[in-house]
């Protein structure tokens, strides 16, 4: 369970990124946070992860927390399997070396995100998308009950976006994990989130299907957005299509 009460934060005095923000995420539920660039999604996620002290309000998170950041600072020259084993650190003694069980857990987590074949590669020589999957595996290796993910699919190709979405859904539905993720993809929120928090102007929080309607999405991004339902192999998939107008700008035409 996550409870956020009257949360608020600024980096420049009194220029509030968000304030008076209250919402709750029940155990075994997924919540997506959407909002325009710079509105404070990562900042809120850092506060949930207890790596940032808010200027206002209270946050309570029950259970072991795993965090999947967008990227790590600096180049980390570890092998991928050692990066994932870092996720086991809370189970090792102060100078304890990982044991057989830790290794098999780390291997299973790499397998879960579909990159078992990268185990011996150096983390700093991976692509951005591959690194994102390693950080997901590292969080899972910590046997967390609450998973906080910052734009978990932002660097991923379409197939790997599917891997991550299916994994999030399985972790929530089958394992009862509590998940909060930020995203710029309303489709991803519709696919796996029970609830949505929209951070722009007056925040909106509620069931994903209801919050992500055409009017709210257009208000959020300042772009008209259509909701469509697609039938695929007997499954109904809710999708969103932004209606970008590509004419009427002053920009010169591209030189071909
Ligand atoms: N440590 C910091 N010091 C000063 N300003 C910061 C700091 N961290 C973030 N900011 C500023 O706070 C604002 C919100 O940043 P944040 O990363 O939370 O936005 P976001 O909604 O996650 O954006 P995006 O969608 O682009 O990832 C930005 O204007 C950013 O420059």
What is shown here, in short?
The protein has 256 residues and is α/β, with parallel strands linked by helices. It has helices spanning 41-48, 80-86, 100-112, 128-141, 158-173, 186-192, 208-211, 214-221; strands at residues 2-9, 18-25, 30-34, 56-61, 65-68, 146-150, 178-182, 195-198, 204-207, 225-232, 235-242. The protein has one domain: Rossmann fold.
Structure characterization notes:
The structure is a single chain. The chain contains 8 helices and 11 strands. The chain has a 6-stranded mixed β-sheet with strand order 5-6-7-3-8-9, sandwiched between helices. The chain is globular. With 256 residues, it is of the alpha/beta class. 30% of the residues lie in helices and 25% in strands. The model has no long low-confidence stretch (mean pLDDT 92). It has a single domain (2-207), classed as 3-Layer(aba) Sandwich (Rossmann fold). Helix 2 (80-86) packs parallel to helix 4 (128-141) and helix 3 (100-112) packs across helix 4. The structure holds adenosine-5'-triphosphate (ATP). Adenosine-5'-triphosphate binds at residues 11, 17, 35, 37-43. The site of adenosine-5'-triphosphate has 10 residues, from helix 1.
Known CATH architecture: 3-Layer(aba) Sandwich
Radius of gyration, whole Å: 19 Å
- Distance N to C terminus: 54 Å
Proportion in β-strands:
25-35%
Q: Give a list of the ligands.
A: adenosine-5'-triphosphate
């Amino acid at each position: 369970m996550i409870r956020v009460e009257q949360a608020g934060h600024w980096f420049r005095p009194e220029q509030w990124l968000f304030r008076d923000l209250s919402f709750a995420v029940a155990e075994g539920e997924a919540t997506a946070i959407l909002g325009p660039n710079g509105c404070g999604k990562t900042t809120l996620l850092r506060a949930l992860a207890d790596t940032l002290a808010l200027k206002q309000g209270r946050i309570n998170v029950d259970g072991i927390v795993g965090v999947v950041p967008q990227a790590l600072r600096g180049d980390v020259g570890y092998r991928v399997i050692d990066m994932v084993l870092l996720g086991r650190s809370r189970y090792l003694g102060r100078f304890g070396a990982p044991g057989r069980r830790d290794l098999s857990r780390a291997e299973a987590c790499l397998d879960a995100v579909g990159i078992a074949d990268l185990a011996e590669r150096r983390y700093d020589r991976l692509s951005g998308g591959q690194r994102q999957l390693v950080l997901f595996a590292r969080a899972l290796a910590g046997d967390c009950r609450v998973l906080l993910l910052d734009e978990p699919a932002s660097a991923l190709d379409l197939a790997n976006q599917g891997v991550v979405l299916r994994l999030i859904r399985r972790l929530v539905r089958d394992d009862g994990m509590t998940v909060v993720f930020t995203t710029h993809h309303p489709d991803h929120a519709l696919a796996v989130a029970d609830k949505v928090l929209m951070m722009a102007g007056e925040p909106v929080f509620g069931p994903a299907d209801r919050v992500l309607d055409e009017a709210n999405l257009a208000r959020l991004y300042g772009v008209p957005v259509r909701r469509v339902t697609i039938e695929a192999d007997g499954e109904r998939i809710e999708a969103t299509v932004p209606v970008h107008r590509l004419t009427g700008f002053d920009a010169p035409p591209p030189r071909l």
